[in-house]
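My current task is to audit a protein record that another person submitted. Thanks in advance; the entry in question is below:
***
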Amino acid sequence: MTSNATTTAGLSDVTSSDAALRRFLHGLPGVDQVGAEARAAGLATRSIKTTAKAHAIDLAVRMVDLTTLEGQDTHGKVRALAAKALRPDPTDASCPRTAAVCVYPDMVTTAREVLGADSGVAVAAVATAFPSGRASMAVKLADTRDAVAAGADEIDMVIDRGAFLSGRYLQVHDEIAAVREACRRPDGTEAHLKVIFETGELQTYDNVRRVSWLAMLAGAHFIKTSTGKVQPAATLPVTLVMLEAVRDWRRATGQMVGVKPAGGIRTTKDALKYLVVVNEVAGTDWLDPAWFRFGASTLLNDLLLQRHKLRTGRYSGPDYVTLD
């Protein structure tokens, strides 16, 4: 599925021109579609022993970017979501907090008011004309700067899929690099940048691999599958290809980049399948919220129900968790 001998030769020069970047990206090992899907399917059958399941569920809770990205979002809904991120299960103080709350930029201040500065729960904001990415660079950069100024710890940007699919790779690279620069704060710190590919529109696994490397070359801290607005969203084979890319990037550069599947991951069973794939493909270093996240709005509720079942030995009704 991928070569373990990803070369570092010329990495510093591949973004010198469109032609050089194209040669590099099209020179990456091709993805064996049948092999990738078969391996993902095989890993999905792995079972997790009961003794490890409780740890895996808590880890999955800690990896959730609890998300609301609807036109009907209100400040009250965002406050409630942020409170849930801080105390997912009010009946159990041992339940860990989620990784982040992900909202539109105009809701960053509201989320920050609830989460505070040192709760350990980050505020993530979608930016750059989410979910379409169809805006001028001036608008995309202003969107990003506004979110960072409002207190966002993380920015989830969307790439211009039309530019990528047209082969305008250097344009996409330069836009990602410019957004990364816009994530910098006056004090020299920066918000972490997650780059969304909208893999459901990229057509092939080869394109997923290419865009993963493109984003990492441009300075992405995380690579992310989807906005959740296009189907298919996250899938195990696509995530496997992205995990191979970050693994090979680390081998080539010594740098770790995170991965975030988003959209369609709704059950504990699904989440545990992803954790198995992370462990088997990228390795245990990625089994940490600093390097792997779930973009989800409903996953947390099922994790809480399964967690309660392990703790008490009985299933609770759906009214045990809040409706988000």
Q: What stands out?
A: Confidence is low (pLDDT under 50) at residues 1-8. The radius of gyration is 19 Å. The domain at 21-311 is CATH 3.20.20.70 (TIM Barrel).
